[in-house]
Amino acid sequence: MDKIIVYLDDADYARQQLAPMKGSVPAGGKAQATHWVLVACPPRMTRRISKWVSHSAREKWRAKWSDKLFGQVVPALLAGGDKVTTLLASGSLVELTARLAAEHGASRVLDARRPRFGEDLQPVTADQPAPTGGRWEVPGAVVGMGALLVLAAE
Q: Full-prediction pTM beyond 0.85?
């Protein structure tokens, strides 16, 4: 059985990423069932939210959010006769990936989280390259253009 660990945070984006992998046939030519380990990565809450919301309420919201996400993704995977295990991410994703790989044996890892402008996503494996300052590229370019315009005006 092929095992795939998938990190997701948006149902529509994840379905687009999973579509090519659902019907893939290995080199042997016979399609085999896949065991999908879906890991929900809920959006971060600001640190100031603890002033208004208790820890148990935050955890309840995270669980409700992940149930809604799984409700949109899991039926399509189960329709193909695959096995699905769901999990809610907490802590370091690199450590979670190592723990899941040890638990489930040899498996592939797919990061199907939607990339967002100005936000660096936490890596999911130890060998995944770290983000390279994508957050400051546009403001730096704007400052550079502003300086160029000031010099040209003088």
A: no
Encoded amino acid at 98, one letter: A
CA 116, chain centre distance (Å): 11
Measured in degrees and rounded to the nearest 5, phi and psi for residue 92 equal -70, 130
Entry field: residues in the chain: 154
Range list of β-strands (E), 64-144? 83-88, 108-112
Single-letter amino acid, residue 110? L
Q: How far apart are CA 45 and CA 63, in angstroms?
A: 14
Q: pLDDT tens, 68-77?
A: 999 999 988 8
Q: Where are the alpha helices (DSSP H) in 8-92?
A: 11-22, 55-79
Write down all domains in the chain, each with its CATH number in brackets: 2-153 (3.40.50)
